[in-house]
Write a structure and sequence with these properties.
Elements lengths: L23 E10 L9 H22 L7 E5 L3 E6 L6 E6 L2 E10 H11 L3 H16 L7 E15 L2 E3 L1 H4 L6 E3 L5 E3 L9 E10 L7 E10 L1 H4 L1 E9 L2 E3 L6 E3 L9 H21 L3 E4 L6
Antiparallel strand pairs: 1-5, 1-6, 2-3, 3-4, 4-5, 6-7, 6-12, 6-15, 8-9, 10-11, 11-12, 13-14
Helix pairs in contact: 1-3
Length: 296
């Protein structure tokens, strides 16, 4: 396929940076929330929305220069209807639920994901706006975006330092240094005799330097016991949240619909904070592999 490539991948990745080690992204998901559709069981409303989604997907494929409209596959269930663009490289799915639109992309090489993201994401706002406009017409009430979340998933595994294997919880020891011991008392991970079944680290922070003013950024990494503690699952989430202004004490919210336009800002934050920041500081000094699917 000949997809549009509006921005150079080398702007984000170069041979002198840590990022060249992150060869793969494991998953991508974008969730756009809107007010609940009370008449979700109405077959006529759902049929009209599904037809609109199909038309909008064709338009998006043309804008992104993916083409191959014949590869669109429709499906529906009790809780959603979906359209899958079935392609061996640029496949993705758009699903519409009673209160949200979910755009999902399976894992692939990071450089190829870059081209898909830069080509597909500019058309997502048009697709979502078109669906909401039709909802307003059918439901005769205001329908607007209430929240937007971008989620980027990575899987790293086979950690080694000086040819010596490191378990995932040993790597995560840079973040989690204490765990409950056999008697429940807090003790050092390194000196503990407790068998760890899973360790998780998750923190939400505000990014105040984004072009839209304020973003919620979530750093999430898990170290499960499967595959003999060989892998770490990273998730980086960027989105909007309500918050209390520390100066006024009033509840405020960034305009979530702006997040549909901030895909480039989010992508740059992924590289700067997620990959070059969090992953690099956690995995610095280690050799490791990444996977777009599962750990072999």
């Amino acid at each position: 396929m000949n997809a549009a490539q509006p921005k150079s991948y080398l702007e984000f990745d170069d041979a002198n940076s840590f990022a060249y080690k992150v060869h793969d992204i494991n998953s991508f998901q974008m969730t756009i929330d809107f007010p609940m559709i009370a008449d979700w069981e109405n077959d006529e409303i759902r049929a009209r929305l599904q037809d609109r989604l199909h038309d909008d997907m064709i338009a998006l494929l043309q804008t992104a220069q993916f083409y191959s409209e014949s590869q669109l596959q429709q499906s529906k269930s009790a809780d959603n209807f979906s359209i899958l663009y079935k392609d061996d490289i640029y496949d993705f799915q758009v699903s519409v639920y009673q209160n949200k639109v979910v755009i999902s992309k399976s894992g692939l090489k990071m450089q190829t994901f870059h081209f898909w993201y830069q080509s597909a994401l500019p058309g997502m706002r048009t697709l979502v706006s078109s669906l909401l406009d039709l909802m307003e017409e059918l439901l005769r009430r205001k329908m607007n975006v209430t929240n937007v979340i971008y989620r980027f998933g990575f899987v790293a595994y086979d950690f080694r330092k000086d040819a010596k294997e490191n378990k995932n919880y040993q790597v995560l020891n840079r973040l989690i240094t204490k765990i409950p011991g056999s008697d429940g008392m807090i003790e050092s991970v390194e000196g503990s005799s407790t068998e760890i079944s899973r360790a998780d680290y998750k923190v939400n922070v505000w990014d105040r330097n984004s072009s839209d003013g304020r973003l919620s950024v979530t750093y999430d990494v898990s170290a499960p016991a499967n595959r003999d503690y060989s892998g770490l699952w990273f998730n980086f989430l960027f989105g909007t949240q309500t918050y209390s202004d520390p100066d006024t004490g009033q509840r405020q919210r960034e305009m979530p619909e702006q997040m549909l336009e901030e895909y480039d800002t989010v992508y740059r934050l992924l590289w700067r904070k997620g990959i070059q920041g969090f992953m690099r500081s956690l995995l610095d000094g280690l050799e490791f592999k990444t996977t777009a699917t599962y750990i072999p």
